[in-house]
Design a protein that fits this description.
Layout lengths: L1 H13 L2 H10 L2 H8 L2 H16 L7 H17 L3 H16 L4 H17 L3 H14 L7 H13 L3 H14 L3 H17 L3 H17 L6 H14 L3 H17 L8 H7 L2 H8 L13 H17 L3 H18 L5 H12 L1
Length: 346
C-alpha cells in the first residue's frame, strides 16, 4: 500500500496529475485508504486534485470526475465533515447527469438522496427519490435506488418499510461491503421498531461477516447499533462495553470518536451528556447543516435535564426536537421522542 501512496504523493507534488490519477484510480487507492483508516490522507490527495482541476491543470473524463467526487464525499463522511460531504456528493450527482446514462444518474442520485437523509434533511431526500422515480420508470430495478430509498425511509422513521426494502437490497447485492452495511441498517430499523431479537440476530451476522471479509471500517456502526440494542434492553453496562469497542476502533482508524450522549444519560453522567450535546445546536449566527445530530442533541438534553430535576427545561428541549422533526421530516429518533415524552408525563 505505502509505495502506491508515495507514488501518488510524489506525482502530485511534481504537478504530474495524470500520472498521479492513473495510480490513484487504477490501484483502487480510495477503498484501501478507507479500509486502513486513512480518510484524511484520501481527502488531502483529493483536494490537491481539486486545486489542479480548478486551475485547469487536470482535465479528467466524465466518469473519472464522478469517481473523484465520490472519493471526496466518502472521506468527508468518514471524518464527519458534513458540509463537504453534501457538497461533493451533490457534485457527484451533477457529474453523473452529464453522462446521460440512466444507471449512473439513478445510482448517484439515490446516493445524494441518502446523504440528504443522513444529515436529517429527509424531505429533500424524499423529493429527489420521487424525482428519480418520475423520470425513470425502471428505477426500482436499480440496486442503489432500492437501498438508498430504504435509508431515506429509515431516517424518516418508517421502520417497517425500511425492513422490506433493505431485505430486498441485501438479497440483490453481490458486494460484501454493501451487504454488511445494509444489514446493519436493517438491524437498526428492527431494533427501533421493537423487534430486538431479530435485530440482534442480524447484527451478529453483520459483525461476523465484517470480520471475515476484513472490512473493519464497518464495525464502528455495528458496535453503535449493539449499543442502541443494549440501551433498549435497559442494560447500560453491556452498552458501555460496546461503546468502548467502538471508541477504540474509531481511534485506530483515525476517525472522529465521541461518547454517546444517550449512554451517558443512562449511566447518570448528566453533565457529560449536556457537554457533548450543546455544541450540536443551531445558534442565531449559524444554522447547522446536520439536522439529525441536532435532533439527537435536543433529545439528549431533554433527558439530561429531566435527570437533573428541571422538568421545564426538559419539556422545552423535547418540544424543540419534535418541531425540528416536523420541519425536516427526520423522524429517525421518533422512538426516543416517544420514550422521553412518556417519561416526562409521569
Amino acid at each position: 500500500m505505502q509505495p502506491f501512496l508515495d507514488a501518488v504523493g510524489h506525482y502530485l507534488e511534481a504537478g504530474n496529475h495524470k500520472a498521479a490519477w492513473d495510480i490513484y484510480s487504477n490501484k483502487n487507492v480510495d477503498n484501501r485508504l478507507q479500509e486502513l483508516g486513512y480518510a484524511q490522507l484520501l481527502l488531502d490527495y483529493g483536494r490537491a486534485f481539486e486545486k489542479a482541476l480548478k486551475g485547469g491543470h487536470w482535465n479528467p473524463g466524465a466518469y473519472d470526475l464522478i469517481f473523484f467526487y465520490q472519493c471526496l464525499g466518502l472521506a468527508c463522511d468518514a471524518l464527519s465533515l458534513d458540509k463537504g460531504n453534501l457538497e461533493y456528493t451533490r457534485k457527484q450527482y451533477e457529474s453523473s447527469r452529464k453522462t446521460g446514462r440512466e444507471d449512473n444518474i439513478i445510482g448517484n442520485g439515490a446516493i445524494l438522496a441518502q446523504t440528504f437523509a443522513s444529515l436529517g434533511r429527509v424531505m429533500e431526500g424524499e423529493a429527489l427519490i420521487q424525482e428519480l422515480g418520475g423520470e425513470f420508470p425502471e428505477v426500482e430495478k436499480n440496486e442503489h435506488f432500492l437501498s438508498c430509498s430504504g435509508f431515506v425511509k429509515f431516517y424518516g422513521g418508517q421502520y417497517g418499510e425500511v425492513v422490506s426494502l433493505l431485505q430486498k437490497a441485501v438479497e440483490a447485492s453481490i458486494d460484501n461491503r454493501n451487504k454488511i452495511a445494509w444489514k446493519t441498517y436493517l438491524a437498526k430499523a428492527q431494533v427501533r421498531a421493537g423487534d430486538l431479537e431479530e435485530g440482534e440476530r442480524v447484527l451478529k451476522k453483520a459483525e461476523k461477516e465484517a470480520k471475515e471479509f476484513h472490512i473493519p471500517e464497518l464495525l464502528p456502526a455495528i458496535y453503535s447499533s449493539f449499543l442502541l440494542l443494549s440501551l433498549k434492553k435497559g442494560e447500560a453496562g453491556e452498552a458501555r462495553s460496546w461503546e468502548e469497542k467502538r471508541l477504540e476502533l474509531e481511534t485506530q482508524l483515525g476517525l472522529p470518536a465521541e461518547e454517546d450522549g444517550f449512554l451517558l444519560v443512562a449511566e447518570g453522567n448528566l453533565d457529560g451528556a449536556i457537554h457533548i450535546a450543546e455544541p450540536y445546536l443551531s445558534t442565531e449566527t449559524e444554522e447547522k447543516i446536520n439536522k439529525l445530530d441536532e435532533i439527537s442533541a435536543l433529545l439528549i438534553l431533554a433527558r439530561a435535564w429531566q435527570g437533573k430535576g428541571d422538568r421545564r427545561k426538559a419539556v422545552v428541549y423535547l418540544q424543540d426536537a419534535e418541531d425540528l422533526m416536523k420541519k425536516t421530516g427526520c423522524y429517525r429518533d421518533k422512538d426516543r421522542l416517544k420514550e422521553t415524552s412518556e417519561s416526562l408525563s409521569h
